[in-house]
Write a structure and sequence with these properties.
With 464 residues, the protein is mostly helical. It folds into 3 domains: 200 residues, MFS general substrate transporter like domains (Growth Hormone, Chain: A, Up-down Bundle); 53 residues; 206 residues, Growth Hormone, Chain: A, CATH 1.20.1250.20. 80% of the residues lie in helices and 0% in strands. α4 runs antiparallel to α5.
Length: 464
């Protein structure tokens, strides 16, 4: 009996390792590519618009498929879907690293996004199956989330080292051994989940969501090259609006919708989604813009760029822990509001940064942004878990993550249109982008102050 218990505990720990490895490479790819942008541009001789697609192709596929991926995990089993996602991601990473042309790299980034979308919801479901006891499950989820935070924080530095030593393909090829190890551990040790054979896939809703998000991304990315008033950009925005409206109509009538609209009757859900979108808009947009600024205006190497990002990324894990402590004591409203206020101060300080500014003048604003965003992110997840019923937590988490990824896509597109290497004054474009981040962040802060009527105490608020 003791041997059986020890074997079960070991398998659970190895299942946690497998899901964490999958989550690590998914999150690492969100930030690691930014420090390689200049080298990719020079190697493939591509323009700024194509460079934005190298970043956004991944995030777009990830964002638009997250909700359906959760439904697939319910229908076919989380273990099978996680293995498939990790296999797709690993193979796509290989083709990214071996790409000798822009189209091939962007297509491979799309496939990476597909694999990432399959991995994330199913990895959380696998943890639930591997750790049925609530206390052990909470600890496992904390470790799983912590590895993601570390991956996001380490991304720029890891990318800088790899690009400097081995060239830009290395940032993708490093995923191969990690992905293979994750697949082997999952096959050997991860339990499967109960399959819901009757769960239907909302194909019309998924199709409209992909078209709407793709059209929006296309319009935002192309605006930098063509201008907001061009026929191409206007048409893209029109397609995004029309298909977005059709998506709402379809979801309202579908018996098993991709996105249950009843979720948005919940104020905490709405505020959390808006906050998540705003946070990623500024954070991902800033990482893209600052990477170009460091390497083109300040002429930093990829490694120096990764080191320059350390004040913003190294504090993520510590600030996440502080956010949890603040939430437990004061409720989620305080860290959500304070985090955004601090991030807004950081963005505002970037308005005064020039190409010849000293390291401290650059590091302090980035530190404020990093701490602010890291304080706010856990609180939006807590708000959703507190106010959404147990049967809807999965889909609510998918909605929140989708909103965050959309914010990242739009942020990279908008910031990229303002900070383009062919511009004579990159600092001026960075200043406009930073002010835009201030406006978006303060607007989101206002929704927190007006939309959440209580402090968000976990003791007094309940799950209604």
């Amino acid at each position: 009996m003791l041997r059986s218990h020890n074997s079960s505990a070991r398998s659970s720990r190895l299942a946690l390792l497998a899901t964490s490895l999958g989550f690590v490479i998914v999150c690492l790819d969100v930030t690691v590519v930014n420090v390689a942008l200049a080298r990719i541009r020079d190697s493939l001789a591509i323009n700024s618009t194509a460079l934005e697609w190298v970043v956004n192709a991944y995030t777009l596929a990830f964002a638009s498929l997250l909700l359906s991926a959760g439904a697939l995990a319910d229908r076919f089993g989380a273990r099978r879907v996680f293995i498939a996602g990790l296999a797709v991601f690993t193979c796509a990473s290989a083709t990214c690293g071996l790409s000798g042309a822009t189209a091939a790299l962007i297509a491979s980034r799309v496939l990476q996004g597909v694999g990432a979308a399959l991995c994330v919801p199913s990895s959380l479901a696998l943890l639930g199956a591997a750790f049925p006891e609530p206390h052990a499950r909470a600890k496992a989820v904390s470790i799983w989330a912590g590895t993601a935070a570390l991956a996001l924080g380490a991304g720029p530095l890891v990318g800088g080292v790899l690009v400097d030593r081995f060239g830009w393909p290395a940032i993708f090829l490093i995923n191969l051994p990690i992905g293979i190890a994750g697949i082997w551990l999952t096959v050997a040790h991860a339990p499967d989940t109960v399959r819901r054979a009757g769960r239907r896939i909302d194909l019309p809703g998924q199709t409209l969501a992909v078209i709407s998000l793709a059209a929006l991304t296309y319009a935002v990315v192309e605006s930098g090259r063509r201008g907001w008033t061009s026929a191409t950009v206007t048409a893209g925005l029109a397609v995004a609006v029309v298909t977005g409206a059709l998506f709402v109509v379809v979801e309202a009538r579908h018996p098993q919708p991709l996105l249950p609209l009843t979720l948005f009757r919940n104020a905490a859900m709405n505020v959390s989604a808006i906050t998540g979108l705003s946070l990623n808009f500024g954070y991902y947009g800033l990482m893209f813009a600052m990477s170009l600024f460091f390497q083109n205006a300040r002429h930093d190497t990829p490694l120096e760029t990764g080191l320059a990002f350390l004040p913003m990324t190294a504090v993520v894990t510590v600030a996440n822990v502080v956010s949890g402590t603040l939430t437990a004591r004061f409720g989620y409203r305080l860290p959500m509001a304070f985090g955004q206020a601090l991030a807004a101060v950081g963005y505002l300080a970037l308005v005064f940064v020039q190409a010849d500014s000293n390291a401290l003048a650059v590091a302090l604003p980035l530190l404020a942004v990093g701490v602010g965003v890291a304080l706010a992110v856990p609180s939006i997840n807590t708000a959703v878990l507190t106010h959404v019923g147990p049967s809807s937590i999965g889909i609510a988490s998918g909605v929140l993550n989708t909103a965050r990824q959309i914010g990242g896509v739009v942020g990279v597109g908008v910031f990229g249109s303002l900070v383009r290497p062919e511009l004579n004054d990159l600092a001026e474009g960075l200043h406009v982008a930073a002010m835009l981040a201030v406006v978006v962040t303060l607007s989101s802060l206002l929704t927190v102050l007006l939309g959440l009527r209580t402090s968000g105490s976990l003791v007094t608020d309940g799950a209604g």
